C-alpha cells in the first residue's frame, strides 16, 4: 500500500491524466453497454409442445404424449419429467439439474422428438428452452381497415413480419390471430343418396383440376416457343360446378362455403387483430430493438392507411424507466452521503474531496462491467444503488484521519501520506471483507447464481475502485485542497468515552443484554411470515373465462364476446384484448391452452382503481353459469403464480391416487390464508369408446373409417384473389344421439355392416386433462396463498399432510412457491456461512492473530437485532431479498469493527488494552458514524422509491440493511470493545493491576 500511495504523489501529472481517462471510459462504457431488463440466465427446463386439432385428451395422451415420453426417457441430466395432455394439445416439460448445459440439452431433446412418428393432422413437436434474453421487448397489435381483402391482409402480414425480423438485434417474432381462410364442402346425405353418388366420390373432386405444367416446345412461324398447360380455380362458384358423377355437379349434392377462419382468435377492443410479440437476440440492446420497433410502426402507419399498428406494452420502455429510476436513486444516495459528510466535517473542501470517489468509482465500475460483458439491468444498477453508500466509506476514513491529524500538526505532504498509511490496512481489510461476502455467489447453482453474480460483480468492482481512489486520489487532492484550509480541532465525545468505560467495568451486563436481544430477534424472525417477491403490476389486469371442455366453442366465444363488451364498457379501462385457441406460432414458445379458455388483458388508465374493476368482474360471475371467471393483477411477462403451493399425488392406480387427492384437498382447505384450492382431476367429460370384437373386424380399419366420416378431411386447395385457400370435406356423419352412433355403417372384411354388429359403444366419464410425472399418472392440487403469509402456509400444509397416510404405491410431493423459497433461503444461509469463514480468514491474515478478528466477527451477531427491528417498525413482510440484505450486512458491519480494532492494535504499542480501547473508540467514533450514516442515507431512496419488478433491490432489502447497520454500529462501539477485552482478560487484568499499583506507589511517594 505504501508504494501505491507514494507512487501517486511522485506522478501527479500522470494521476490527472488517469482520472480524465477513467471518467471518459466510464461515460463511453455507459453509452455502449447493452441495456436489458434482466441478466441472461437459462431456465433449466426444456418444453415440448404439440397441437392436434380434433383430438381428445385421451387420444393426445395415448398417441402423442406417451410416444414423446418414451423417446425422452434416455435424455441425460434431467431431474424429472412432467407432461400434460388435453383436448387438442400435449406438452412435456423436462426439468434439468442446475449444472446442465441447456443448449446441449435442447439439441438432445430436439434429436429425440424428431424421430417420433405422430398421428396425421398433428403438428410437429415444438421444442423450446427459455432464456431471460427471450423476454419480449414489444407487444404490437395490427388491425385492418374495413374493405381490405384477405389476400391484401396476407401480404401486409408478411411485410410487417419481415420488417420486424429485419430490425438489428431482433431474436424472434411471434404472431397470433393469423387468418386461415378455408372452403368447406358439407355433403348432403339425402341428395347424395337420391343421385346415387357415394360420399367417397367427393374426395377426388379437385384431383387434376388445378395444375400448371410445361408440355414441351415447338416451332411456330419460324420461332421456337414453349407450350404449357394451366388451369386454376379462382372462386367458390367455379368449385360448385365441378362434376362428381355423370350429370351431377358438386353444388347439387353438397353445400360449398367460404369461411374466413383464424388459427387462433385475438381481438383488441372488440376488433379482430394480429398480435406480434418481438424478442431481442442474445447480447442485443433492448432499448435499440425497442426503438427499431417504434420506427417500423411509424413507417407502416404513415405509408399504409389500411393498417393501424400500435404498441400495447414495451419492456424496452421499462428498461429505460429502470435505468433512469436507479440512476436517480444513485444520485439521491450520493447527495445524502455528501450532506452527511458536510455535517460531520463542517468543511466544504474536505467534503468535495471525499465525494470525488463516487463519480470516479462509478466510471471505473461501468468500464469493468463493459470489459466483463455484463449488461446494464435492474440487478447491476441495483448493485450500484446499494454500493453508493459504501463508495465513500474508504474515502471518509482517509479524509477523516488526515483531517484529525491536521487539527494538531502542521500541514505537509509527508503528513498526508503518513495519515493515509495509518488507515490503509484498515480500509483495505474492510473492503476485502465486504467483497469476500459476494465471492461465494459463484458457488450458487442455476438461476440464483445467474441473477446474483452480476449484482456481486458490480459491488466488487465498485468497492475495489473506491479503495483505489481512497489510497491515491483522495490523499493527492487533500494535499492540494487542504493546504491553506483552517481546521478547527475536534475533541472525542467525553460522554461516550465515560459510557464505554462503565461498560468495560461491567462488561458481562451489556454482553448478556446483547445476546438476549439476539435470541429474541431470531425467535421473532422465525415466527414472522415470509412473503413472496411481489412482481404484479396494477397497471394491467388479467381476466380468464373457462368452460368445461365439452362446451361447444361457439357458446364459449358467444359468452366471451359478452364479457369482452362488459370489460370495454368500464371507464377505468384503456383497452381490452381477447385471446382464444392455440396457434402454431404460440406452440413454438410452449404456449398451449384449452380451446374453451378465453383470456383477457386489460390496460388500466392512469390513476384508475384496479380493485374496483376486479370486484366488478367477480360480480359478473352469476351471469355466466358453467364458466369459471378469475381476475388478478398481472403483466405480459407473468408465467404463473409465484404464490402457489402445490402437492403432487403420484402412483400407478388412478383410483387410489384420486382418493388420496380428495383427502389432501380437504386438509388444505382448512389451512388459514389459503385463498383457493384446485385439483387437476376435478374436470370430467363424457367419452364414448368403441370396443371392437377383434374376431369380427379390424379395430385399426374401423378407426380410420370413422376418422374420415367424423372429421374434416383436406381434399386440395384453390386460389382466391391470389391467396391459396385449403378445401376441406366436412364430416359426412353428424351423430346426435347414442342410437345414431350404433347405426353407423362400416366396411369389414365381409362387407358393410352396422357398427353395433361388430363392436359396442361404452360410455364413461374421463378426465379432461391427463398428467404424468416421470411417466406415472399424478394428480396436482394447487393452493393459491396470501403472498405475505407464504412461508407460514407452506409449513401449515406440510403439518396437515403429515396425518395423510397414502396407500402403498402412492406418494405425496410438496412443492411450489414455498418450497422454492425455502430452497433459495437455504442456499443463501449456506452462502452466508461460507462468507463468514472467508471474512474471518482475511482478518486473521491482516491482524496475524485469532482473537482480534474474533472480536470483530461478533459485530455480525448484532445484525439480526436491527434487521428484525426494522421490519417490525415498518411493518414490511420479509422475503427472499431480506435474507440477501442480511448477507450484504455481513460485509458492511465488520468494516466498522475493523476500523475500530485496527486503531486499538496501533495503540497497544504504547498503551494498555483498556486505554487503547477507550482512545480508539473516542477517535474512531466519528468516521464510524459517518460511514454508517452515509450508507443509511444512500439507502433511503430505495426505501421510499419504487422497486422494479423482479429486482432483488427492494424495499425489504433496504430496510434490513438500514436497521441492521444502525443497531450493529451502535452496539459495535460498545460491545466489540467489551468482547475484545474479554478475549484478552488476563493480560488486561495484569495491566490494570500494574497500573493501580503504580498509582498507589506514586501517591505514597507524593
From TrEMBL:
Transmembrane regions: 12-30, 326-345, 352-369, 381-403, 423-443, 463-487, 508-528, 825-847, 854-876, 882-904, 925-944, 956-983
This protein's UniProt keywords: Membrane, Transmembrane, Transmembrane helix
GO CC terms, sorted: plasma membrane
InterPro entries: AcrB_DN_DC_subdom, Acrflvin-R
GO MF assignments: xenobiotic transmembrane transporter activity
Superkingdom to which the source organism belongs: Bacteria
Stored PANTHER family: PTHR32063, SWARMING MOTILITY PROTEIN SWRC
Name this protein carries in UniProt: HAE1 family hydrophobic/amphiphilic exporter-1
Provenance organism: Cohnella lupini
Amino acid at each position: 500500500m505504501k508504494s501505491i500511495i507514494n507512487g501517486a504523489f511522485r506522478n501527479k501529472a500522470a494521476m490527472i491524466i488517469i482520472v480524465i481517462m477513467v471518467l471518459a471510459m466510464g461515460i463511453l462504457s455507459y453509452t455502449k453497454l447493452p441495456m436489458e431488463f434482466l441478466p441472461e440466465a437459462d431456465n433449466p427446463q426444456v418444453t415440448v409442445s404439440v397441437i392436434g386439432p380434433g383430438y381428445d385428451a385421451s387420444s393426445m395422451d395415448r398417441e402423442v404424449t406417451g410416444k414423446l415420453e418414451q423417446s425422452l426417457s434416455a435424455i441425460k441430466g434431467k431431474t424429472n419429467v412432467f407432461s400434460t395432455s388435453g383436448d387438442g394439445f400435449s406438452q412435456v416439460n423436462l426439468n434439468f439439474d442446475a449444472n446442465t448445459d441447456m443448449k446441449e440439452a435442447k439439441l438432445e431433446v430436439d434429436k429425440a422428438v424428431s424421430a417420433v412418428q405422430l398421428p396425421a393432422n398433428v403438428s410437429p413437436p415444438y421444442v423450446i428452452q427459455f432464456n431471460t434474453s427471450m423476454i419480449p421487448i414489444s407487444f404490437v397489435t395490427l388491425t385492418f381497415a374495413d374493405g381490405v381483402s384477405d389476400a391484401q391482409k396476407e401480404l401486409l402480414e408478411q411485410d410487417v413480419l419481415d420488417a420486424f425480423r429485419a430490425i438489428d438485434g431482433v431474436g424472434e417474432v411471434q404472431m397470433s390471430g393469423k387468418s386461415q381462410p378455408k372452403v368447406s364442402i358439407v355433403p348432403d346425405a339425402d341428395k347424395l343418396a337420391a343421385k346415387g353418388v357415394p360420399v367417397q366420390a367427393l374426395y377426388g373432386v379437385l384431383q387434376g383440376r388445378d395444375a400448371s405444367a410445361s408440355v414441351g416446345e415447338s416451332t411456330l412461324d419460324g420461332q421456337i416457343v414453349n407450350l404449357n398447360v394451366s388451369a386454376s380455380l379462382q372462386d367458390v362458384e367455379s368449385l360448385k360446378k365441378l362434376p362428381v358423377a355423370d350429370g351431377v355437379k358438386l353444388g347439387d349434392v353438397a353445400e360449398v362455403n367460404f369461411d374466413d377462419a383464424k388459427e387462433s382468435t385475438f381481438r383488441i377492443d372488440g376488433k379482430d387483430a394480429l398480435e406480434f410479440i418481438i424478442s431481442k437476440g442474445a447480447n442485443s440492446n433492448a432499448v435499440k430493438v425497442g426503438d427499431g420497433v417504434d420506427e417500423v410502426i411509424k413507417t407502416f402507419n404513415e405509408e399504409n392507411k389500411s393498417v393501424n399498428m400500435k404498441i400495447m406494452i414495451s419492456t424496452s420502455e421499462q428498461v429505460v424507466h429502470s435505468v433512469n429510476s436507479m440512476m436517480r436513486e444513485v444520485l439521491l444516495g450520493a447527495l445524502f452521503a455528501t450532506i452527511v459528510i458536510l455535517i460531520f466535517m463542517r468543511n466544504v473542501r474536505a467534503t468535495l474531496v471525499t465525494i470525488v470517489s463516487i463519480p470516479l468509482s462509478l466510471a471505473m465500475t461501468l468500464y469493468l462491467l463493459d470489459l466483463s460483458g455484463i449488461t446494464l439491468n435492474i440487478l447491476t444498477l441495483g448493485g450500484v444503488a446499494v454500493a453508493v453508500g459504501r463508495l465513500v466509506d474508504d474515502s471518509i476514513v482517509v479524509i477523516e484521519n488526515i483531517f484529525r491529524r491536521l487539527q494538531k500538526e502542521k500541514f505537509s505532504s509527508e503528513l498526508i501520506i503518513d495519515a493515509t498509511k495509518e488507515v490503509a490496512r484498515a480500509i483495505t481489510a474492510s473492503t476485502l471483507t465486504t467483497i469476500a461476502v459476494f465471492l461465494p455467489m459463484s458457488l450458487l447453482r442455476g438461476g440464483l447464481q445467474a441473477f446474483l453474480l452480476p449484482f456481486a460483480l458490480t459491488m466488487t468492482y465498485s468497492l475495489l475502485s473506491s479503495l483505489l481512489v481512497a489510497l491515491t486520489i483522495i490523499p493527492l487532492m487533500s494535499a492540494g485542497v487542504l493546504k491553506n484550509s483552517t481546521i478547527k480541532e475536534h475533541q472525542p465525545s467525553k460522554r461516550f468515552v465515560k459510557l464505554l468505560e462503565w461498560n468495560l467495568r461491567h462488561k458481562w451486563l451489556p454482553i448478556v443484554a446483547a445476546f438476549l436481544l439476539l435470541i429474541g430477534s431470531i425467535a421473532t424472525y422465525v415466527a414472522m411470515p415470509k412473503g413472496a417477491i411481489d412482481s404484479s403490476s396494477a397497471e394491467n389486469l388479467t381476466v380468464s373465462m373457462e368452460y368445461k371442455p365439452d362446451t361447444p366453442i361457439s357458446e364459449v366465444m358467444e359468452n366471451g364476446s359478452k364479457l369482452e363488451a362488459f370489460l370495454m364498457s368500464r371507464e377505468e379501462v384503456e383497452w381490452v384484448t381477447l385471446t382464444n385457441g392455440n396457434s402454431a406460432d404460440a406452440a413454438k414458445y410452449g404456449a398451449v391452452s384449452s380451446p374453451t379458455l378465453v383470456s383477457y388483458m386489460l390496460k388500466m388508465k392512469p390513476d384508475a382503481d384496479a380493485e374496483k374493476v376486479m370486484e366488478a368482474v367477480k360480480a359478473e360471475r352469476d351471469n355466466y353459469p358453467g364458466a369459471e371467471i378469475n381476475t388478478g393483477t398481472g403483466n405480459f411477462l407473468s408465467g404463473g403464480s409465484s404464490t402457489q403451493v402445490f402437492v403432487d399425488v403420484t402412483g400407478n392406480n388412478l383410483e387410489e391416487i384420486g382418493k388420496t387427492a380428495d383427502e389432501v384437498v380437504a386438509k388444505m382447505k382448512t389451512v388459514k390464508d389459503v385463498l383457493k384450492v384446485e385439483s387437476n382431476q376435478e374436470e370430467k367429460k363424457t367419452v364414448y369408446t368403441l370396443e371392437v370384437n377383434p374376431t369380427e373386424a379390424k379395430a385399426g380399419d374401423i378407426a380410420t373409417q370413422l376418422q374420415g366420416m367424423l372429421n374434416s378431411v383436406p381434399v386440395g386447395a384453390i386460389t382466391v384473389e391470389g391467396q391459396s385457400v385449403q378445401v376441406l370435406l366436412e364430416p359426412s356423419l353428424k351423430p346426435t344421439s347414442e342410437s345414431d352412433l350404433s347405426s353407423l355403417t362400416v366396411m369389414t372384411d365381409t362387407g358393410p355392416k352396422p357398427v353395433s354388429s361388430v363392436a359396442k359403444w361404452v360410455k364413461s366419464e374421463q378426465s379432461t386433462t391427463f398428467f404424468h410425472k416421470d411417466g406415472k399418472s399424478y394428480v396436482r392440487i394447487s393452493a393459491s396463498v396470501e403472498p405475505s403469509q407464504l412461508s407460514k402456509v407452506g409449513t401449515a400444509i406440510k403439518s396437515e399432510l403429515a396425518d395423510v397416510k397414502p396407500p402403498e404405491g402412492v406418494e405425496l410431493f410438496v412443492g411450489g412457491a414455498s418450497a422454492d423459497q425455502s430452497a433459495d433461503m437455504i442456499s443463501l444461509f449456506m452462502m452466508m456461512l461460507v462468507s463468514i469463514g472467508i471474512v474471518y480468514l482475511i482478518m486473521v491474515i491482516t491482524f496475524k492473530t485469532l482473537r482480534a478478528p474474533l472480536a470483530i466477527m461478533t459485530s455480525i451477531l448484532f445484525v439480526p437485532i436491527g434487521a428484525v427491528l426494522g421490519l417490525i417498525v415498518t411493518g414490511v413482510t420479509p422475503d427472499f431479498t431480506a435474507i440477501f440484505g442480511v448477507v450484504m450486512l455481513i460485509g458492511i458491519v465488520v468494516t466498522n469493527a475493523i476500523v475500530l480494532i485496527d486503531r486499538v492494535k496501533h495503540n497497544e504499542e504504547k498503551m494498555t488494552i483498556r486505554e487503547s480501547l477507550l482512545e480508539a473508540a473516542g477517535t474512531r467514533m466519528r468516521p464510524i458514524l459517518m460511514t454508517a450514516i452515509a450508507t443509511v442515507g444512500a439507502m433511503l431512496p430505495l426505501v421510499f422509491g419504487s422497486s422494479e419488478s423482479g429486482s432483488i433491490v427492494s424495499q425489504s432489502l433496504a430496510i434490513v440493511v438500514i436497521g441492521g447497520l444502525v443497531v450493529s454500529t451502535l452496539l459495535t462501539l460498545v460491545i466489540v470493545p467489551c468482547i475484545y477485552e474479554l478475549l484478552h482478560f488476563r493480560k488486561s487484568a495484569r495491566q490494570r493491576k500494574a497500573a493501580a499499583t503504580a498509582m498507589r506507589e506514586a501517591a505514597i511517594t507524593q
